[in-house]
Amino acid sequence: MRATKNALEARMGTWRMATDMTRIPKAKAIVVVADDLEESHNVLSVRIKDAVAHEKATLVVIGALRSELVDFATHWIRPAAGEEGQAAAALAGAVAGETSSGDVAAAAEALRGAEGAIVVCAPNPVSPAIAGAMAGGAANLAVALHGEAASDHLVVAPPEVNTHGLLDVGVAVEGGENPLEGLSGLLVVRDDPTMRLPGAAAALDGLDALVVIDNVAHDTAKRATAVLAEGRAYASRGTYTQGDFRVQRLEPAIAPEGDAVTCFAALTALAAALGVDVPADEGAALAAIANETPEYQPAADLIIGEGVRLEVAASGQGSTAPVADAVASGEGLRIITGRDQYTATDAAALRHPEAERLHRYDRIQVSEEDAERLGISDDDEVELTDGELTLRAPATVTDRVPEGAVYVSSLLQGGAVVGFFRGAAVPAVRVGVPVPA
Length: 437
Description:
Elements: H1 2-12, E1 29-34, H2 37-40, H3 42-55, E2 58-62, E3 75-77, H4 84-95, H5 102-112, E4 118-122, H6 128-146, E5 154-156, H7 163-168, E6 185-189, H8 200-205, E7 209-214, H9 219-222, E8 226-229, E9 238-241, E10 246-250, H10 263-274, H11 282-292, H12 297-300, E11 307-309, E12 333-338, H13 345-349, E13 364-367, H14 368-374, E14 381-385, E15 390-398, E16 405-409, E17 428-432
């Protein structure tokens, strides 16, 4: 998310977009920059379909995957895998009057005649480089369409539900490309870095102390010096901040089981043992947040079940900036990855074979063209390798994936594909059917 934040601030002076998502179903023109919005943010995708079905909205989809939204689109710009941000930047240039052709030119012409177009971007959740390019290209397009009012016409969907809330209170707003580098100790709360960060397992093994607060016995928890068992999220009290800064207040629906405690209780007990002063309870914590970040005062006044959208002013700034070219890491097929809608994250963290019960996304998706060329059929065991890392899974042959690429869910085999994203380049792999020994 930090790459996304930096890209937005460079163009609009802020990462906090002012666009109210409730405007989307009534919008007359929408541009989507995403891997597959139907999979990653399906409710947002449904609202866009509402705009097309009921308002006859112009819809431009920019994405390498053939997503469900493509069937609703007026124009589909299908870039090479990992180049969605660059395609959005090209469309921005065309809207601004630069020479263009083909799908980009047609989409630009349609957008020039549309009123109040909203740009929706869901940055890639695995690659910071791709995510930053997607956010930068989408921001360029919003600026080309709306100038200094761009931040009131751009929606940036976060990778997780409370990402914006964490940024608002200063969590992870700064740091290097590798957040585990140089650490001697680490506290992990409700997460499994081995599913998200290349090389995380080795980095965690090198720590002097690793403390985990979670309710899942994932690979990070198994490496921990100590694990504090947490009750499920349904046992929590507090608030979370959604994509357009809508805050929802929660009260416990269940009690923690066995020796488990709430996440807040685990944190306060740990703080007390370390002599760290923290708020006494969840209400006091929210009051402290509202005191430091006044925009959260309405959230502090909520009662159970209520929600409120925080006040987010348009930045009044808008300038375009170049989006760096995407480069493949080598020869072979490019990898597309992202979160799928159907794999259970907790089960994936446990590497459970039934994490995706219908077995649609525990497979490597191969394009029809590449499958024919390589002699791959449905259910064949295929192997992806870049010379350092190898991943094996059954194949699905589909027109969802463009020629020259494969799709692997970011949750497959506990996030195994993340290991291919070791640098800024778009990973390229050799694909083949393993020969039995």
